[in-house]
Amino acid sequence: MKRLYTAEVTATGGRNGQVKSTDGIIDMPVRVPEGLGGKGGATNPEQLFAAGYSACFQSALMLVAGKQHIRLDEKSTVTAHVGLDQFEDGRYGLAVQLDVKVDGVDKAKAEELVSQAHEVCPYSVGTKGNIDVTLNVLN
């Protein structure tokens, strides 16, 4: 295995704190969302995970399509819904639904491309067996 890139972000204060990357591009407060009884008004870990997963999955989708000489319509999108769950034993976990809108190909091809992207996307590979991920192909 060859490491291609390492991101470094430091959090202070947990869910009511700050996250900052070493390059300074990310430097923002994080807050418990209002839906969980917090003040809101800032991003939260689930939003940050959703942003990363959706962008990464979109890139994986473009990669697998490109290898088949398919250029996806620029209106194609990936929307990640990241849920924070609490299990009966008190543990916490995440669940993800990816709504993948693939324009420019038929439904069967869209489903094939999404399935292939799920096999190569680093977020999908990293969460496999740990987080329930539902793929919802919109076409």
What would you say this structure looks like, in words?
The chain has 2 domains: about 1-45, Single Sheet (N-terminal domain of TfIIb); about 45-139, K homology (KH) domain (GMP Synthetase, Chain A, domain 3). The longest helix is centred in the middle third of the chain and has 23 residues, at about 45-65. The chain has helices spanning about 45-65, 105-120, 120-125; strands spanning about 10, 15-20, 25-30, 75-85, 90-100, 130-139. The chain contains 3 helices and 6 strands, in the order E-E-E-H-E-E-H-H-E. It is an alpha+beta fold and about 140 residues long.
Strand content: 25-35%
* Overall 3D shape: globular
Domain tally: 2
What would CATH call the architecture of the largest domain? 2-Layer Sandwich
Distance between the termini: 36 Å
Biggest sheet record:
3 strands, antiparallel
CATH fold assignment of the largest domain: GMP Synthetase, Chain A, domain 3
How many DSSP H or I helices? Answer: 3
- In sequence order, what are the helices and strands, one letter per element? EEEHEEHHE
Helix content: 25-40%
- The low-pLDDT segments are none
Mean pLDDT value? 96
Widest sheet, order of strands: 1-2-3
Q: Measured on Cα atoms, how large is the radius of gyration?
A: 17 Å
Number of beta strands: 6
Q: In CATH, what is the class of the largest domain?
A: Alpha Beta
* Secondary structure category: alpha+beta
